[in-house]
């Protein structure tokens, strides 16, 4: 059943068969842990696959009617008392719960479980001990709460917003500390409630500054990156007050060799989001910040000459995030006349980086080629005279020809980050992480 859910989810999602399969699967959660774990994974696979079939109304109605009973069964499974001190079943149950909530289109369901997870978290903090299982339970509840809030985007009531915010900040005070899971929840609040988060920004920034000091805790630092991205997008009118502190923190992270190089790449995404938030107020950072971009370009070009798999994997991440970040900066400052000379001077290095990293031998993704083409065209459109000497028409022709090799069907299956999308700030996964589908050039 688990393998069928993973590889042929349509067999279990089809109303013709699911009516005889879903309830027995829910019942099987009560069996011995080894079976229950497989059923949890099966529900997780079904939830991940379900969006691919929701265009069929019968599938959608059938799936939506099953989500609540499945989550209820998984909740009971997570709190089973017959599994001893092991926490694997707890984690797998919540993995499936989170996937189920994320896959549903029902805001009523998200609202219901937001309140449920809040109550469970209150009880867990107030009554649990300090065992590993207790800590994992709290982390699972916070992760589930985060997903529920993200699903409520634009539909979260003022009272619920206040209740969640109070719950997390009181928790921070209770543990006399901050942690990544709590930061992610408040970050999701900013995404969900938008500009209304401005009223809480000053209060929350105190906790965020505390988290910024934890340079030896990668997960906490990553949650801060996500919070900076989400809050800068949601609180444009207020975020400028905190941009100096944010930029100082980000530069410290770039220079912190104890953080993984993959984690530090998120700094560039933060730069782009801050630029879109504060626009002209980003100018004082521009020259100094571009020195880091130029170092990153040079590192990327060196990696492009390496045949090592790990180097090329890192290059894939590096180039995606640099181009995404630069697209945001270009759109943030395209109307700021004072930024023109600094930007145009930088584009020489950017265009060279694009040319080299789009070479066919590096197997660039369709998304990367499109993003690079869109960025170059935007730059030419915004500063036609300034960049004329840097523009390589052969590169533009090459990018167009490469993209034309894909059928319309193939193109539609990829995420396209266009100029229009730049000002809409992309769609966001957990903690500010982007959802990107990749397709290699053949």
Structure overview:
With 442 residues, the chain is mostly helical. It is built from 24 helices and no strands. It has helices spanning 2-7, 9-13, 15-18, 22-28, 33-49, 57-78, 88-103, 107-127, 132-151, 158-175, 180-193, 198-212, 218-234, 236-239, 243-254, 261-264, 266-278, 283-304, 309-333, 340-357, 366-382, 393-403, 408-412, 419-424. The longest helix is centred in the C-terminal third of the chain and has 25 residues, at 309-333. The model is unreliable at 411-442 (pLDDT under 50).
List keywords for this structure.
442 residues, disordered C terminus, 72% helix, mainly alpha, globular
**What portion of residues is helical?**
over 70%
Total beta strands: 0
What's the N-to-C terminus distance? 33 Å
Amount of beta strand: under 5%
Can you tell me the residue ranges where pLDDT is under 50 for at least 5 consecutive residues? Answer: 411-442
Summarize the structure.
The protein is mainly alpha-helical. The chain is built from 24 helices and no strands.
Helix and strand arrangement:
Layout: H1 2-7, H2 9-13, H3 15-18, H4 22-28, H5 33-49, H6 57-78, H7 88-103, H8 107-127, H9 132-151, H10 158-175, H11 180-193, H12 198-212, H13 218-234, H14 236-239, H15 243-254, H16 261-264, H17 266-278, H18 283-304, H19 309-333, H20 340-357, H21 366-382, H22 393-403, H23 408-412, H24 419-424
Helix pairs in contact: 4-6, 5-7, 6-7, 7-9, 8-9, 8-10, 9-11, 10-11, 11-13, 12-13, 13-17, 15-17, 17-19, 18-19, 18-20, 19-21, 21-22
């Amino acid at each position: 059943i688990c393998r069928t859910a993973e590889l042929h989810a349509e067999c279990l999602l089809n109303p013709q068969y699911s009516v005889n399969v879903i309830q027995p699967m829910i019942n099987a959660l009560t069996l011995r842990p080894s079976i229950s774990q497989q059923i949890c994974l099966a529900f997780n696979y079904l939830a991940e696959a379900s969006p691919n079939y929701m265009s069929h109304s019968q599938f959608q109605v059938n799936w939506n009617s099953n989500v609540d009973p499945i989550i209820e069964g998984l909740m009971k499974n997570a709190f089973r008392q017959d599994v001893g001190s092991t926490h694997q079943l707890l984690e797998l149950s919540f993995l499936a719960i989170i996937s189920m909530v994320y896959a549903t289109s029902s805001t009523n369901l998200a609202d219901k479980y937001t309140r449920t997870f809040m109550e469970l978290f209150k009880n867990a903090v107030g009554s649990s001990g300090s065992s590993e299982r207790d800590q994992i339970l709290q982390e699972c509840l916070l992760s589930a709460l985060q997903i529920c809030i993200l699903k409520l985007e634009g539909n979260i009531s003022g009272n619920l917003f206040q209740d969640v915010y109070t719950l997390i900040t009181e928790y921070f005070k209770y543990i006399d500390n901050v942690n990544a899971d709590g930061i992610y929840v408040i970050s999701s609040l900013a995404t969900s409630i938008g500009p209304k988060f401005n009223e809480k920004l000053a209060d929350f920034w105190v906790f965020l500054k505390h988290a910024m000091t934890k340079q030896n805790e990668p997960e906490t630092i990553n949650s801060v990156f996500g919070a900076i991205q989400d809050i800068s997008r949601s609180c444009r009118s207020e975020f400028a007050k905190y941009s100096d502190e944010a930029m100082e923190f980000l530069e410290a992270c770039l220079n912190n060799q104890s953080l993984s190089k993959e984690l530090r790449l998120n700094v560039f995404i933060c730069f782009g989001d801050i630029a879109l938030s504060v626009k002209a107020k980003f100018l004082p950072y521009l020259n100094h910040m571009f020195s880091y971009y130029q170092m990153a370009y040079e590192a990327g070009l060196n990696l492009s000459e390496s045949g090592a798999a790990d180097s090329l994997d890192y290059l894939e991440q590096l180039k995606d995030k640099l181009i995404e970040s630069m697209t945001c900066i270009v759109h943030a400052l395209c109307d700021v006349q004072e930024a023109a000379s600094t930007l145009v001077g930088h584009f020489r290095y950017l265009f060279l980086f694009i040319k080299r990293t789009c070479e066919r031998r590096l197997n660039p993704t369709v998304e990367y080629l499109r993003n690079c083409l869109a960025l170059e065209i935007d730059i030419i459109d915004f500063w036609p005279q300034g960049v004329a000497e840097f523009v390589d028409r052969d590169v533009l022709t090459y990018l167009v020809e490469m993209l034309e090799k894909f059928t319309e069907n193939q193109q539609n299956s990829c995420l396209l980050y266009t100029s229009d999308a730049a000002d809409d700030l992309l769609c966001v996964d957990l903690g500010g992480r982007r959802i990107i589908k990749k397709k290699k050039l053949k």
